[in-house]
Amino acid sequence: MAARSSERTKAAILSAARERFAAAGYEAATIRAIAADAGIDPAMVMRYFGSKDQLFAAAAEFDLRFPDFAGVDHTHLGAAVVRHFLDRWEGDDALVLLLRSSTTNTEAAQRMKQIFVAQLEPMVARLVPTDAATRAGLIATQILGLALCRFVLKLPPIAAMTRDEVVSWIGPTLQRYLCEPM
Questions:
Q1: Which has fewest Cβ within 10 Å: 115, 137, 164, 174?
Q2: How far is CA 174 from the centre of its chain?
Q3: For residue range 161-172, what is the model confidence (pLDDT) as tens digits?
Q4: Rounded to an integer, what distance in angstroms lies between the CA atom of residue 66 and that of residue 89?
Q5: Homologous superfamily of domain range 2-55
């Protein structure tokens, strides 16, 4: 019975957190407000999730919103994928926060892994069915590395590059992962 109650409490916290993060944003959302929304003591939030970052990671539900790349000229797929990811990273601070959290938090890392496995791999498989998991994994190394350096660490040479420069450097690598035989 305690496990069932525990699961209900955890579900209530996650539901309240999703609503609060969506309505107020990460910075303005507080553990106290989330706990109040869930009708529990703030200590319970900390007991189940440890920190605001961990709660955010658990509550995060991200859609990478892949367009249909089937209509893109086959020779420009890599560039199109890089542009799409830049749009997503630049347009969603919560995704950057999840990446930042995933470097130190197991739950956030697992969430990031789930997002990429559940969304990137099927997208790649639609374009190139052969070795889709490996190709998606290689694409993830480039995209996550780029995002970490550009949006989290803000490495001066990478953060200072224009979008077109990023696409011209990273696009050919993704093109190779998508189109060349393995």
A1: 164
A2: 18
A3: 999 999 999 999
A4: 13
A5: Homeodomain-like (1.10.10.60)
